[in-house]
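[step 3/7] fold_predict: job queued, chain A
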Amino acid sequence: MRKPFDDDPAIGADGADIASVEALRAAERRLQRAQLSSDVAALDRLIDDRLVFTGPDGRLYSKQDDLHAHRSGQQTMNRVDEEDLAVLVAGGTGVTWFLGTLEGTLAGEPFLARVRYTRTWILDEDKGWRLLAAHVSPANRDTVAHG
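[step 4/7] structure written:
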């Protein structure tokens, strides 16, 4: 069975050019920096209004939920360590797979977690890459890049 990254992960499924892949990689990393600094304005630009995020508790969250968590201080991040970032572009759709460690507080409780995010992005001609859907799962220490 073919695994998603048997081919070069820097080339999209439809032969997308490296510039498109790198633009999505850059958007993903802007998102990480915005999360780390709770930059609500940057998050607002990067997240599509239709966002559906599946959290580690299995609940669904909206863009407004995410922005409120950062704006109110309910969620703060003091560490986002990327171990691996795979990117796939197919036309105006992109997917990123982040593997790394997050540390911060949520509702006043500290957390430290190794996680895998799967994020689906859409390309808006005026606004660039925007996050449309995301899912986060715990990743134990045996989880490997592209695995």
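[step 5/7] annotate
Strands lie at 47-54, 60-61, 75-90, 93-106, 109-124, 128-138.
The chain is about 25% helix and 45% strand.
exit 0
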